[in-house]
Amino acid sequence: MKGIRQLAEHLDISIGTVSRALNGKPDVNDETRRRVLAAAEEFGYVANQSGRSLRQGETKVIGLMIESSMETVENADNFFLGVTSGLQSVFARHKLDLIMLPCPSDEDPHEYLQRMVARRIVDAMIISETHRIDRRIDLLSRAKIPFVALGRSLSASNSAWIDLDFEGVANRAVERLIARGHRRIAITAPSSEVNLGYIFLDGYRRALERHDIPFDPSLVIRVKSSEQGGYQAANELLLLEERPTAVILIYELMAIGLYRRLMESGVMPGRDLAVIGFRDAPRARFLQPSLSCFRMSLYDLGVELGRMLLANMPAYQDFYPGDGRNIIWPLELIVGESDLFDPRTGEKEFEPERLIFDNKTVES
């Protein structure tokens, strides 16, 4: 492992420039910063003071990396507000602190994490919104920093992860709608490269194939995961020459925007278009007709995520034997009125208040 002086000599730049680049100072140009971060990663550079703290287990800090965007700020029903409460309940038992590491949406997540790794400000990491190929996983593995991913990735062959059962949601939603006579079913998918979108779409396609329903790419609406994204999705559905009779949403707040745009056009959710949502965000609970949606306990998810991380940290793994396995996290379907009509008759079917499916599925 090289020190900062050796790193500067290797790059043929001053020690001060290397230090400023590692600390994200604005007076270093982007090309130099990239060179410094890449060299630091290659040679395993660790700043002396924080490096000693990490090796001695003294930082007592866990980092949670999330994407920071305008949507994150505007959406009060943020997914991570629930998850962090569960995480804190686990970490507090060991006097560990949790810090949020918000990566700006206009910055490359790998470069952002490179900077965090170079500073060594945490003992371990939780990364989220994993991409199909996620370079952050290789980075953390090479740096030997314990981590857990909230989301699967093709890069995560041997790493620990928990992922929501997006395939199960797509499969059961399609099966439910087909049982009510729907054949033209649309879905929303993230406009980004986040891996959950691929999993959700694959589950949707396979469910259609089982019923000999051709896959129609025009029924896959790619939008941002936000209330505004739901509004845009509804607008795109309304513009289709042959409209679907049902839509499955991938994000909780989409339903609010979708309802608003449909009603502006005189299209009534639950009467003219069946809607199944994803997680019942507090604001979405007041929608009429009531929203049929999949949900889970975010607190319990956070607890399991925290236990899994500590099970992969040598100092704590004896406290959590058997908690290091990968998990596909199930969701329950809360039945509302938004998807109860039969498009063949236009009549609604009565159902009990909720249908709960599956226990937690664990993969080795």
From TrEMBL:
Q: Which residues form the HTH lacI-type domain?
A: 2-56
Q: Name one GO molecular function term.
A: transcription cis-regulatory region binding
What's one Pfam family here?
Answer: LacI
- Which UniProt key words apply to this protein? DNA-binding, Transcription, Transcription regulation
Q: Which Gene3D superfamilies match?
A: 3.40.50.2300, lambda repressor-like DNA-binding domains (1.10.260.40)
List the PANTHER family hit by this protein, alphabetically.
Answer: HTH-TYPE TRANSCRIPTIONAL REGULATOR GALS (PTHR30146:SF109), LACI-RELATED TRANSCRIPTIONAL REPRESSOR (PTHR30146)
Annotated protein name in UniProt: LacI family DNA-binding transcriptional regulator
Q: What is the lineage of its organism?
A: Bacteria, Pseudomonadati, Pseudomonadota, Alphaproteobacteria, Hyphomicrobiales
